[in-house]
Write a sequence for this structure.
Protein backbone atom coordinates (compact mmCIF):
# COMPACT_ATOMS: atom_id res chain seq x y z
CA UNK A 1 0.00 0.00 0.00
CA UNK A 2 1.20 3.51 -0.89
CA UNK A 3 0.19 6.61 1.05
CA UNK A 4 1.40 10.08 0.01
CA UNK A 5 3.90 8.65 -2.49
CA UNK A 6 5.49 9.97 -5.68
CA UNK A 7 6.82 7.90 -8.58
CA UNK A 8 6.59 6.95 -12.23
CA UNK A 9 3.14 5.72 -13.23
CA UNK A 10 3.65 2.96 -15.78
CA UNK A 11 7.20 1.88 -15.02
CA UNK A 12 10.62 3.53 -15.07
CA UNK A 13 10.46 4.52 -18.78
CA UNK A 14 7.13 6.32 -18.30
CA UNK A 15 6.77 10.06 -18.87
CA UNK A 16 3.91 10.20 -16.35
CA UNK A 17 4.57 11.07 -12.71
CA UNK A 18 2.04 9.93 -10.11
CA UNK A 19 1.39 11.64 -6.79
CA UNK A 20 -0.59 9.06 -4.82
CA UNK A 21 -2.90 10.04 -2.02
CA UNK A 22 -3.41 6.31 -1.58
CA UNK A 23 -2.86 3.14 -3.58
CA UNK A 24 -4.47 0.09 -2.03
CA UNK A 25 -4.49 -2.30 -4.98
CA UNK A 26 -7.06 -4.66 -3.53
CA UNK A 27 -9.59 -1.83 -3.07
CA UNK A 28 -8.87 1.50 -4.83
CA UNK A 29 -6.35 4.23 -5.62
CA UNK A 30 -6.46 8.02 -5.81
CA UNK A 31 -3.62 9.61 -7.80
CA UNK A 32 -2.76 13.00 -9.26
CA UNK A 33 -1.09 12.41 -12.65
CA UNK A 34 1.38 14.72 -14.36
CA UNK A 35 1.77 13.91 -18.08
CA UNK A 36 4.81 15.37 -19.82
CA UNK A 37 5.01 15.05 -23.59
CA UNK A 38 4.95 11.82 -25.56
CA UNK A 39 4.39 8.52 -23.83
CA UNK A 40 6.73 5.60 -24.26
CA UNK A 41 6.14 3.62 -27.46
CA UNK A 42 4.00 0.89 -25.91
CA UNK A 43 0.31 0.19 -26.02
CA UNK A 44 -1.05 -1.19 -22.77
CA UNK A 45 -4.14 -2.18 -20.85
CA UNK A 46 -4.55 -1.60 -17.13
CA UNK A 47 -5.05 -3.79 -14.09
CA UNK A 48 -7.89 -1.48 -13.02
CA UNK A 49 -10.84 0.52 -14.28
CA UNK A 50 -10.50 4.26 -13.75
CA UNK A 51 -12.41 7.51 -13.78
CA UNK A 52 -10.22 10.59 -14.34
CA UNK A 53 -10.69 14.32 -14.71
CA UNK A 54 -8.28 16.29 -16.85
CA UNK A 55 -8.05 19.74 -15.32
CA UNK A 56 -5.05 21.23 -17.14
CA UNK A 57 -3.49 20.62 -20.56
CA UNK A 58 -4.50 18.38 -23.44
CA UNK A 59 -4.19 14.61 -23.90
CA UNK A 60 -4.29 12.50 -27.05
CA UNK A 61 -5.23 8.88 -26.52
CA UNK A 62 -4.28 6.46 -29.28
CA UNK A 63 -6.37 3.28 -29.12
CA UNK A 64 -5.09 0.01 -30.52
CA UNK A 65 -7.97 -1.85 -32.12
CA UNK A 66 -6.24 -5.16 -32.85
CA UNK A 67 -5.33 -4.29 -36.44
CA UNK A 68 -1.84 -2.95 -37.10
CA UNK A 69 -3.17 -0.63 -39.81
CA UNK A 70 -5.96 1.03 -37.80
CA UNK A 71 -5.81 3.14 -34.68
CA UNK A 72 -8.32 5.57 -33.22
CA UNK A 73 -7.43 8.89 -31.58
CA UNK A 74 -9.38 10.55 -28.76
CA UNK A 75 -8.49 14.13 -27.83
CA UNK A 76 -9.21 15.36 -24.33
CA UNK A 77 -9.31 18.89 -22.94
CA UNK A 78 -10.25 19.95 -19.41
CA UNK A 79 -13.92 19.19 -18.83
CA UNK A 80 -16.34 18.46 -15.98
CA UNK A 81 -17.00 15.16 -17.80
CA UNK A 82 -14.70 12.32 -16.71
CA UNK A 83 -12.45 10.18 -18.87
CA UNK A 84 -13.48 6.55 -18.35
CA UNK A 85 -10.77 3.95 -18.92
CA UNK A 86 -11.73 0.28 -18.71
CA UNK A 87 -9.23 -2.46 -17.86
CA UNK A 88 -9.38 -3.79 -21.41
CA UNK A 89 -8.75 -0.42 -23.13
CA UNK A 90 -5.52 -0.94 -25.10
CA UNK A 91 -3.99 2.51 -25.54
CA UNK A 92 -1.15 4.94 -25.12
CA UNK A 93 -1.52 8.56 -24.07
CA UNK A 94 0.47 11.60 -25.20
CA UNK A 95 0.32 15.02 -23.62
CA UNK A 96 0.51 18.33 -25.47
CA UNK A 97 3.03 19.98 -23.15
CA UNK A 98 2.33 19.30 -19.48
CA UNK A 99 -1.11 18.03 -18.46
CA UNK A 100 -2.63 17.23 -15.07
CA UNK A 101 -5.41 14.77 -14.20
CA UNK A 102 -6.96 13.40 -11.03
CA UNK A 103 -7.65 9.67 -11.27
CA UNK A 104 -9.76 7.34 -9.15
CA UNK A 105 -8.88 3.70 -9.81
CA UNK A 106 -10.75 0.57 -8.84
CA UNK A 107 -9.32 -2.69 -7.51
CA UNK A 108 -6.45 -4.24 -9.44
CA UNK A 109 -6.77 -7.44 -11.44
CA UNK A 110 -3.75 -9.73 -11.27
CA UNK A 111 -2.60 -9.11 -14.86
CA UNK A 112 -2.62 -6.65 -17.76
CA UNK A 113 -0.99 -6.37 -21.20
CA UNK A 114 1.94 -4.27 -22.41
CA UNK A 115 2.87 -4.21 -26.10
CA UNK A 116 6.01 -2.36 -27.17
CA UNK A 117 6.25 -1.27 -30.81
CA UNK A 118 6.79 -4.23 -33.18
CA UNK A 119 7.00 -6.75 -30.32
CA UNK A 120 4.71 -9.44 -29.03
CA UNK A 121 2.39 -8.44 -26.16
CA UNK A 122 3.65 -9.21 -22.66
CA UNK A 123 1.44 -10.12 -19.71
CA UNK A 124 2.47 -8.28 -16.57
CA UNK A 125 1.48 -8.60 -12.94
CA UNK A 126 1.94 -6.48 -9.84
CA UNK A 127 5.44 -4.97 -9.67
CA UNK A 128 5.50 -4.95 -13.52
CA UNK A 129 6.80 -8.54 -13.43
CA UNK A 130 6.32 -10.57 -16.60
CA UNK A 131 4.08 -13.63 -16.22
Amino acid sequence: MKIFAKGKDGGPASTVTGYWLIEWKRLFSVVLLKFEGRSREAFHTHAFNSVSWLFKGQLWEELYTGRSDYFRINKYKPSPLPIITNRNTNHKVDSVGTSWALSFRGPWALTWQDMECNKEPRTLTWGRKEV
